[in-house]
Amino acid sequence: MKQHIPNTITSFNLFSGCIGVVLAFEGQLINAGYAIIIAAIFDFLDGMAARLLKVNSPVGKELDSLADMISFGFLPSVIVFMMLETNPAIEYGGSWIKYSAFLLAVFSALRLAKFNLDSRQTSIFIGLPTPACALFILSLPHIALSKDPIISAYVQHPVILLALILALSFLLVAEIPLMSLKFKDLQLRTNLHRYILLLVSVILLFLFQLTAIPFIIIFYLVLSLMQYNKLTQEL
């Protein structure tokens, strides 16, 4: 029975993503974002369960990617699509712009397919992980609710959203080594950058809640680039 436990947890990840898609199409973008968070928790727990129970399997690996495709690929695309769909400014840029949101789903699929076949990504990531991309997207509706009308208008502007779509799509498949958050041990010397990221993330989330996520993702990218030579040697 224990070999089915991680797959069951993965299925909850997929279930959360499916519910999030429905909520997004209904216009409940904040709640759809919460579905991404719940899916991310299950995504973390299924890997932990597989390691603790020592029950890794090819089926579990494929199921995990399929669940991630919905929760961290398709669902974020729908959130951005609905932000564009309901934006009056889109009339000036052409209705085609809203369909560009699904580039996130396409490049997430490419990212996940590459990850399954790439033996280099055991201790580091190459390209932005799909959960990080999804977390970035879920923060956008929260930022759009900002009391500052300028910030709210900018984050919902079709050109800004299109630029974010293109930038995130590129990062998903870019040959850029990024640090993994998996701790092999708890030593400060070998995990200094991870501890810095966790500390900064906790402080920013405490101060700015979910609107802090884009800054955390950017900080994560900067920290990884600072370790470019070290991470490249691990490939």
From TrEMBL:
<keyword id="KW-1208">Phospholipid metabolism</keyword>
<feature type="transmembrane region" description="Helical">
    <location>
        <begin position="125"/>
        <end position="145"/>
    </location>
</feature>
<dbReference type="InterPro" id="IPR050324">
    <property type="entry name" value="CDP-alcohol_PTase-I"/>
</dbReference>
<dbReference type="Pfam" id="PF01066">
    <property type="entry name" value="CDP-OH_P_transf"/>
</dbReference>
<keyword id="KW-0472">Membrane</keyword>
<keyword id="KW-0444">Lipid biosynthesis</keyword>
<dbReference type="InterPro" id="IPR043130">
    <property type="entry name" value="CDP-OH_PTrfase_TM_dom"/>
</dbReference>
<keyword id="KW-0443">Lipid metabolism</keyword>
<keyword id="KW-0594">Phospholipid biosynthesis</keyword>
<keyword id="KW-1133">Transmembrane helix</keyword>
<dbReference type="InterPro" id="IPR048254">
    <property type="entry name" value="CDP_ALCOHOL_P_TRANSF_CS"/>
</dbReference>
<keyword id="KW-0808">Transferase</keyword>
<feature type="transmembrane region" description="Helical">
    <location>
        <begin position="195"/>
        <end position="223"/>
    </location>
</feature>
<dbReference type="InterPro" id="IPR000462">
    <property type="entry name" value="CDP-OH_P_trans"/>
</dbReference>
<keyword id="KW-0812">Transmembrane</keyword>
<comment type="similarity">
    <text>Belongs to the CDP-alcohol phosphatidyltransferase class-I family.</text>
</comment>
<feature type="transmembrane region" description="Helical">
    <location>
        <begin position="96"/>
        <end position="113"/>
    </location>
</feature>
<feature type="transmembrane region" description="Helical">
    <location>
        <begin position="151"/>
        <end position="174"/>
    </location>
</feature>
<protein>
    <submittedName>
        <fullName>CDP-alcohol phosphatidyltransferase family protein</fullName>
    </submittedName>
</protein>
